[in-house]
Amino acid sequence: MLRAIQNIPILHHIVSLYDPGIISRHISYQFEPKHMNFRGGNCRLTIDLNDHIGYRTYIRNQPFEHSVYNFGKQLKLGPNDVILDIGANIGTASIPICAENGCELIAIEASKPNAALLLQNAALNQVRIRPHILALTAPEDAGQFIPLYLRDGNRGANSLLKDWAPSAAGQHSEIVFTQTLDDLLSDEATIGRIKIVKIDVEGAEWAVLRGARNFLAHNRAPILMEYRFDAMDERLSKDFGHLLEFMVESYDVCGLDGHGQRVEFDPHGSYENIIFTRRPPRSKC
Fold first, then answer.
1. What's residue 68's pLDDT?
2. DSSP state letter for 49
3. What is the Cα–Cα distance from 140 to 200, expressed in whole angstroms?
4. Which of 20, 91, 264, 273 could pair with 153 in a Cys bridge, judged by C-beta atoms 3.0 to 4.6 Å apart?
5. Rounded to whole angstroms, how far apart are CA atoms 54 and 35?
């Protein structure tokens, strides 16, 4: 029924009432996992209906973050190409692309329960995956075990930032290891094969990029990133200001719509994804 009414404007709000991510903001309730198998196109996924990403995947009848999938289709990827998914969650953004095109996946996910479903979904689709269960961060914070703050009902909102996504159930955390992307990926041959970089780390994007300077110097792939100006406090606004200032030195920035098409970027707007595209190097005189 919820699938049927989601496209009826006057009834659309009813769908949100059953979304575990919305419920957890207002009601202290312990969501027990409710796994089910989902098939979308050429991809099979195990999802959790009692989590926002699984619920939205089921209701929309397509994997969550479909704009990433749509953008990936434009690049005509093949078996020699690699997708780097930073904040992979259970793989709904990257596994469908890899399953359809035979790409290799380097997946970084800090939360162990999320990573368990990520690995299961990679196995279901015979995706070649290099999994890393850790959190990427800046050099000064690397090599430590730190808390990852959990959002029951919306584990895609798990964050290294304590106040990123508070819920009515209070604060819970999971201890995770930290590393920089430069320390994790140093093989230039692998770096050169990466054709899409997706970063979805709930407020820690600037820290990830500060630990990726060598990677960025050797890779020219487009970078997809969540951009939620509506969720930024004063500190995050400053971090994203530094991030944009750093990236526009070498990249053009656009928003992405739900079909993976570029739209004009407004730094005061909110987007499921924005895209940084590397500008060609200037020719020398």
1. 81
2. T
3. 21
4. 20
5. 9
